[in-house]
Amino acid sequence: MKPLSPTDQLFLWLEKRQQPMHVGGLQLFSFPDDAPDDYVAQLADRLRQYTKVTPPFNQRLDYRFGQPVWVEDEHLDLEHHFRFEALPTPGRVRELLSFVSAEHSHLMDRERPLWEFHLIEGLGERQFAVYIKVHHALVDGVSAMRMVTQMLCQDTGERDMPPIWAMPPRPSREKDDGGPSLWRSVGHLLGESGKQLGTVPTVARELLRTINDARKDPAYSSIFHAPRSILNQKITGSRRFAAQSYCLSRIKGVCKAYGTTVNDVVMAMCATALRSYLMNQDALPEKPLIAMVPVSLRKDDSSGGNQVGVILASLHTDVTSPVTRLMQIHEDVKAAKDRYADMSAEEIINYTALTLAPAAFNLLTGMAPKWQTFNVVISNVPGPRETCYWNGATMDGMYPVSIAMDRLALNMTLTSYGDQVEFGLIGCRRTLPSLQRMLDYLEEALVELEDAAGL
C-alpha cells in the first residue's frame, strides 16, 4: 500500500468526463527485414505470455480512511490492458491518428490499474504502431518516456524483449525527477512548504521584481498578462491528435544562422503556427499569446533531483516578421533563464509555484477568468538519441500525446528521437476545429525561417 502524493491526488481531482488526465505515447515501427507477413500477430502472441505484471502497472486505486492509495491488483486482467487491434483500410497515418484521437478521449476504469497498451497492425507497408496511455497520477511524462526507452534497445538482432508492463521496476525516487509541470510545481510547494522557509527572501524578491517589470513593460510575459483566446474556453471530451516529424538538422541550421537554441526555434515554429491558425479562425488576439514552457536548468550531468523551471514566455504572435518573432523569443527565454541563474533549485521551484498559483486556481475552479496566466503549454521531453529497436523492429518515430483541459484546449508537446524532432498536438475537437492544419503551419513556419536565412 502506497499513499498518493498531493500532486498525484490533484490529477485525480481534476479528472472529469471532458477532461481525462492520462498521458500517452505513439510509436511507429517497421518490420524486421526477415519478418513474415504475420509478424505483428506473432508478436501479440508472445506479449500475451508476459503475465507477471510489475509495478507500477500492477497497482490499482483504493481508498483507506478516505485517502487514495495504490494497492496491488490481485485479479489483474491482462486482456483488458493489452489490446491487439487493426486499423481500418486503407491503413494510412490518417486512420492511425484518428484511432489515437478516439482512444485518448476515453476515461479509464478506476477499478483497474490505470494503463492501456495497444498493439496496432494494418498500417501501410510492413509497419505497425504501439499506443500506450497511462494516468498522470501513476506516472509523469518523463517517467513514461524512460519506461518506453527501457523497453527498447539498440540491437536489431535482439528478440523476446518484454513489454512495458513486464519490465523490472525502476527506483521510486526517479518519479521525483520527472518533467516539470504546473501541477508538479504547485503540489511541491503545498507538500513541502514547511521545509522551504529559507527560500522565502529570494522568492519574495524575485516575485516583486517580476511584478515591477510587468508594470514597466506592457509586453512583459508576467502573471495575469495572457490575452483571452479561443484556446482558453471550456472543452468537450472529444480529442483531436496530430503528429509530425521534423529533421533536427533543419532546425539546427536555423539555430546556427540566427545564434539561437533548438528550443527557441521550436517555440518560434509553434508561435507562427498558432498565429496562422488563429488568423484563419479570425480569432487572433491583439496581444501576444503566452506559453508556459518547462525548461531544464541542469548545469551538470547528474540525474537526481529537480533542476527545472517553468518560464512564462511571450510568443510574440502580434509580430508579423517570423525572424523578429524568433529573436524576441530568444531574448525573452534567455532573460528568464538569467533570472534563475542565481537561484537555488528549491527557490526556483517555489518561485514557479507562486507565479503559477493563479493559473492553477483558475484551471481548477474557472472562478477567475481574468487571471489568464498563459494560453498554451509548449513542452519538450527528451527522447533517445540513437535509433531504437523492439523485437527486431525499427522504431521510426515516437510522438507524445498529452492532456487538454478546460481553459487550456491545446497542448503542444514534442520529443527528440535520433535526428528527428517529433511534434504531438492534442486539443479539443470542437473548440479547435481542423487542428490537423496546424501541422502545415508548423512546416510553413520552419520554411519561412529557412528562406529568410538563405538555407
TrEMBL record:
Pfam families: WS_DGAT_C, WS_DGAT_cat. The keyword RNA-binding does not apply. Residues 159-181 are annotated as: Disordered. Pathway: Lipid metabolism; Glycerolipid metabolism; triacylglycerol biosynthesis. Residues 4-266 form the O-acyltransferase WSD1-like N-terminal domain. It is an enzyme of class 2 (transferase). Residues 305-449 form the O-acyltransferase WSD1 C-terminal domain. Its EC number is 2.3.1.20. It comes from the Bacteria. It catalyses: an acyl-CoA + a 1,2-diacyl-sn-glycerol = a triacyl-sn-glycerol + CoA. This is diacylglycerol O-acyltransferase. It comes from Marinobacter flavimaris.
